[in-house]
Amino acid sequence: MLVAYTDESGSSADSRIVSMGGLIGSHIDMAKLGENWREMLHRHGDITFHMSELEGSLEEFEGWTKDQRKALLGDVFRCLNGLFLLAFGASVIVEQYRALPGMAQDAFVDPWMLCFQMCVSEAARTMMVRVDDHSSTEKLAL
User: In what helix (H) or strand (E) does residue 119 lie, and over which residues does it extend?
Assistant: First the structure.
């Protein structure tokens, strides 16, 4: 079983860009990532990690030194050590979406849904890289 974890940034209503991305890997590697991630969050004070808040020294990261932020980022990437995970993602520039003909906008529903559709498509393509045998019946939990 392959598992994909995704997250988003932005919304159709109030963002210039809507983005989604994620990682795909075996359920074993994804479970290990989850374990590594929980341990990493605990080491740094049981935080909730949001990159924009870390970079802006906001919320939980208010008052953190540059060295503390750098140590956290190093720990974030160490969570991936030894795991075979592949990345996928998609972005939609909302202004360009709104310039599409009405029929196209109706077909895609909204910028968020278009981004989601592209991200699922990318996850499926990435899955084919992960599964060497294209006739495989491997399943994906997204």
Answer: helix 111-130
- 15 is written with which tokens? 């963002």
**51: helix, strand or coil:** helix
User: How many C-beta atoms surround the C-beta of residue 19 within 10 A?
Assistant: 16
Token look-up 């310039």 returns: 99
**Segment 121-129 mean pLDDT:** 77
State residue 132's pLDDT score: 62
Q: 84 φ, ψ to 5°? A: -100, 95
Element (H, E) at 141: strand 140-141
* The pLDDT of residue 8: 87
pTM: 0.77
> In this structure, what are the phi and psi dihedrals at residue 58, rounded to the nearest 5 degrees?
-110, 165
